[in-house]
Each structure stands twice: as structure tokens, then as C-alpha cells.
Design brief:
This protein has 215 residues and is an alpha+beta fold. The protein has one domain. The chain is 27% helix and 23% strand. The chain is built from 7 helices and 12 strands. The strands form 4 sheets. A 5-stranded mixed sheet has the order 2-9-8-6-10. A 3-stranded antiparallel sheet has the order 1-4-12. A two-stranded antiparallel sheet has the order 3-7. The chain is globular and about 45 Å long.
Length: 215
């Protein structure tokens, strides 16, 4: 079995973001973008070097670009499904300007800055068919936390195969203050960022989570 190369995976993720156009959307040169993310290399090598290699449903780490650098409305269309070309879309049921008001839960205490790393990511297909609020409670018991919208976009950007038929995922780390839970699913051959009610289970929708984040 080939050992996981965290250094090579870090470089691949940076290059994926550059190829997708993140530096331009952030108003930066590619060189400046590399400079911005380079300080994240050390914590990745320190904490992910002994991890298992990425699989369809679990990855050792993700580079996360926040909406402070690239707005959600610009990041979602950069995503695609594995082997597909149709760009990601945002569900029309989000009212104009409403998406930005889905913010991270305070208890997540996200790292400061425009980019950071999230570790030990699972798309959470074990929660398919579970009531989202119950899935969130289970994550708390396991000392894990739900992914935010930005973290879900990062997972899909780096690992398009993570979003698959009957294995889509909610992003309970970002909330509006009501009963809606953001989620990524498949619609017409493309990723879609939508939301579902926290009390309504769906057989095709799990709950994505993380073990930790860079500090």
C-alpha cells in the first residue's frame, strides 16, 4: 500500500485552487496566492502525514478558502461532479443576499484568516435517512463538528467524487438562525447548494463533519 504523501497532496490542492481561478477572483496574482497559503503547509505536514490516503467518503485535510476572499456565489460555480462539466448552482429558494447570512456556528471557533485547514473530513453517508438535528447531536457526542458551507465547497472542489448519487451531504456548521440546514446535492448533472429542514430526514442526504481545524 502506498503511503500517504501529505506534501504532495497539499501542493495538489493549491494547484487545484489556482487552476480553478481562485487567485483572480480574490484579486491576487498566483504568486501572492501561493504566499497566502504556504504557512498552512507546516500544520498539514505535522498533523496529516500519518493519515490514511483519501477515499471517496473521507479525506485527511482540506484547504478552505473563506467567503472573505472569494464570495460563495463565485465559488459554487467553480465546482463540478466527477466526470461532468456542468458548473455548480445555488438553489433559487435562497432569497437575494440571504446566503451570506448563513454563518458559521460560534462554537466552531473557526481559525482567523482568509484560508485555513480542516482535518479528518467525512461526508457522513452514515447519516443518510437520519433527522439532521439528530445527526448533529451525534457529532457532538463524538467530539466532531459539522462542516460549514465553505468547507463543503472545499471538499467538492478538491474531491468531486465525494458528491455522489444517494450520498449527498448537509453542511450544518453554517446556519441562519432558523430551522434550515445548508446542503450540497445533485441536480441535473451538477452540484447544487440548497437547504433542508433540520427535522426532515432524506435517504440520500447525510451530514458532513470534521475532526479539527488549524489554529
Amino acid at each position: 500500500m502506498t503511503a500517504f504523501d501529505a506534501r504532495a497532496e497539499f501542493d495538489r490542492q493549491v494547484n487545484t485552487l489556482v487552476a480553478a481561478g481562485y487567485p483572480g477572483l480574490a484579486g491576487m496574482t498566483e504568486a501572492d496566492f501561493h504566499t497566502l497559503v504556504e504557512p498552512l503547509r507546516e500544520p498539514v505536514l505535522a498533523r496529516a502525514a500519518a493519515s490514511a490516503s483519501p477515499s471517496e467518503g473521507r479525506v485527511p485535510f482540506l484547504l478552505v478558502v473563506t467567503r472573505a476572499l472569494v464570495p460563495l456565489e463565485e465559488a459554487v460555480p467553480l465546482t463540478t461532479l466527477a466526470g461532468k462539466r456542468s458548473p455548480g448552482v445555488i438553489e433559487r429558494f435562497y432569497a437575494p443576499g440571504e446566503l451570506e447570512r448563513f454563518v458559521s456556528l460560534k462554537e466552531l471557533a473557526l481559525p482567523e484568516g482568509e484560508v485555513y485547514v480542516v482535518f479528518d473530513v467525512e461526508r457522513g453517508e452514515e447519516f443518510c435517512g437520519a433527522v439532521p438535528v439528530d445527526a448533529l447531536a451525534t457529532l457532538v457526542e463524538r467530539k466532531r463538528t459539522p462542516l460549514t458551507i465553505e468547507e463543503g465547497i472545499a471538499l467538492l472542489t478538491q474531491f468531486p467524487q465525494a458528491l455522489a448519487k444517494n450520498k449527498c451531504f448537509s453542511l450544518g456548521g453554517s446556519r441562519f438562525g432558523d430551522r434550515r440546514v445548508p446542503a450540497l446535492w445533485i441536480s441535473k448533472g451538477a452540484p447544487k447548494l440548497g437547504w433542508c429542514w433540520e427535522g426532515n430526514p432524506h435517504t440520500w442526504l447525510g451530514m458532513a463533519s470534521a475532526g479539527d481545524r488549524s489554529r
